[in-house]
Amino acid sequence: MKLFDIAHSRTGDKGDISNISVIAYDEKDYARLATHVTAERVKEHFKGIVHGDVVRYELPSIGALNFVMYEALGGGVTRSLALDPHGKCLGSALLALEIPDSDA
């Protein structure tokens, strides 16, 4: 299944840092997010785009994970030649990540 089947995202940016929150539609799916959407998988998913560290923060009380991705925006809005210098489309791109249909 794709991540977008069980979650939605919000994004933000500051300079060359992109911030993506992945929020479960249903709180019962949070454990699956926490298990399968790791900082390492996110880093691999954005290979060639994110050149720095990816740090994951867990927010179980709201069923969300937050990923802070360093060196992700080509130097930032005022320096990047990217078509999406704010990184807003990175949230949608992350939702295309494949995760298992079940944890069985």
Question: How would you characterize this protein structure?
Answer:
This is AtuA-like ferredoxin-fold domain-containing protein. Helices cover 20% and strands 27% of the residues. It has 104 residues and is α+β, with helices and mostly antiparallel strands. The protein has one domain (3-94): Alpha-Beta Plaits. Strands 1-2-4-3 form a 4-stranded antiparallel sheet, with helices on one face. β1 (7-14) and β2 (17-24) form a beta hairpin. The longest helix is centred in the first third of the chain and has 7 residues, at 30-36. The mean pLDDT is 87.
Topology:
Elements lengths: L6 E8 L2 E8 L5 H7 L2 H7 L8 E6 L4 E6 L18 H7 L10
Antiparallel strand pairs: 1-2, 2-4, 3-4
Descriptive key words:
4 strands; Alpha-Beta Plaits; 3 helices; 104 residues; 4-stranded antiparallel beta sheet; alpha+beta; single chain
Compact description:
The protein is an alpha+beta fold.
The CATH architecture: 2-Layer Sandwich
User: Number of helical runs?
Assistant: 3
Number of domains: 1
- The order of strands across the largest sheet is 1-2-4-3
CATH topology, anyone?
Alpha-Beta Plaits
What is the end-to-end distance? 14 Å
Approximately what portion of the residues adopt beta-strand conformation? Answer: 25-35%
Question: Got a strand count?
Answer: 4
Q: Which CATH class applies here?
A: Alpha Beta
Instruction: Determine the mean pLDDT.
Output: 87
Mind summarizing the main beta sheet? 4 strands, antiparallel
Radius of gyration: 13 Å
